[in-house]
Every structure is written in C-alpha cells, then in structure tokens.
Design goal:
There is one protein chain. The protein has 59 residues and is mainly α. 59% of the residues lie in helices and 0% in strands. It is elongated and about 45 Å long.
Length: 59
C-alpha cells in the first residue's frame, strides 16, 4: 500500500521537529513581500501566509 504522502489526498505530518518547521514553513523574504502586497491587516496577513505555506507543502 502506498504511503499517505503519495496518495491523492496528502496530509500534513502530525508532529515536526523544530528544524523541520523552520526549513519547511519559514517564509522567504519574497513570500513575505507577496503576502504584504496581497493583504490588508494582520489577520488577513497571517491567514494568507498559512494558506500559501500549506498549499506549497501539500502540492
């Protein structure tokens, strides 16, 4: 059976090490600029960044 990461329905891992979190989810300066141009206010900034990073991770 294929691992869950290789199926049609990818999932996020349940737990990450601190290094994995930084490597995978720390936004680049280019991503921060993009999100700042896209949003208005801190709540929408956070939401947009979360959506961007999780969509990148899930493919």
């Amino acid at each position: 059976m294929a691992s869950i990461e290789r199926t049609a329905y990818p999932r996020l891992k349940r737990s990450y090490t601190e290094k994995e979190l930084e490597r995978v989810y720390k936004p680049s300066s280019e991503e921060v600029r993009f999100v700042y141009e896209l949003t208005r206010g801190p709540k929408s900034l956070l939401s947009a960044m979360i959506l961007l990073k999780t969509s990148q991770r899930l493919g």
